[in-house]
């Protein structure tokens, strides 16, 4: 509970209710009620408390989270706890926090990549349908023109040598009239 956490912090730093009251402008009685769990401060009072205690970043975040739990509906707190537990289990299953976070981030990036590929597939379907409107000779001619343009652009950009194998493969496919798919 927030009051218990605040009490521990005040004891740790040897700060009396009177001193905190003077620093924050909150009455000693209200601070006492907060510590006993009878009251929860409004957000402006919480910020005043947090700003006037010598907290580490972790202590500040923890105290804020405890306050949020206290002022949130029970259903929210229950759902938050369930998700937090699942997240911790996932991190542990993935080999610890750092490795787990890395794996989760990799998974997120992979999912984003898959979404982009799926969107690209839709474009390719349109390109394919348009391309298939041409007869076979026109398709071959169009492909030759595209390869020629790509080759020119790669030479201009100074990237031809690193892509030469792929260009040669495409040219070879056209020479031997191997079926191409998009």
Question: How would you summarize what this structure contains?
Answer:
By secondary structure, the protein is mainly alpha-helical. Helices cover 79% and strands 0% of the residues. The protein folds into three domains: 2-71, 434 Repressor (Amino-terminal Domain) (Orthogonal Bundle), CATH 1.10.260; 73-132, no CATH class; 134-182.
**Named CATH architecture of the largest domain:** Orthogonal Bundle
Average pLDDT value? 85
How large is the share of residues in beta strands?
A: under 5%
Catalogue the unreliable spans. none
Number of strands: 0
H-E string: HHHHHHHHH
CATH topology of the largest domain: 434 Repressor (Amino-terminal Domain)
Distance between the termini: 61 Å
Per DSSP, the total helix count is: 9
């Amino acid at each position: 509970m927030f009051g218990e956490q605040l009490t521990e912090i005040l004891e740790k730093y040897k700060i009396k209710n009177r001193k905190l009251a003077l620093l924050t402008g909150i009455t000693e009685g209200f601070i006492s009620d907060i510590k006993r769990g009878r009251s929860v401060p409004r957000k402006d009072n919480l910020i005043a408390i947090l700003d006037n205690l010598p907290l580490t970043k972790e202590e500040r975040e923890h105290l804020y989270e405890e306050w949020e739990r206290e002022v949130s509906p029970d259903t929210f707190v229950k759902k938050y706890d369930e998700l937090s537990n699942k997240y911790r289990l996932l991190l542990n299953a993935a080999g610890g926090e750092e490795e787990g976070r890395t794996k989760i981030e990799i998974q997120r990036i992979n999912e984003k990549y898959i979404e982009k590929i799926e969107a690209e597939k839709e474009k390719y379907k349109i390109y394919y349908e348009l391309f298939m409107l041409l007869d076979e000779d026109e398709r071959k001619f169009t492909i030759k023109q595209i390869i020629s343009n790509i080759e020119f652009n790669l030479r201009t950009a100074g990237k031809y040598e690193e892509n030469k194998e792929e260009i040669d493969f495409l040219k070879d496919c056209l020479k031997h009239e191997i079926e191409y798919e998009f």
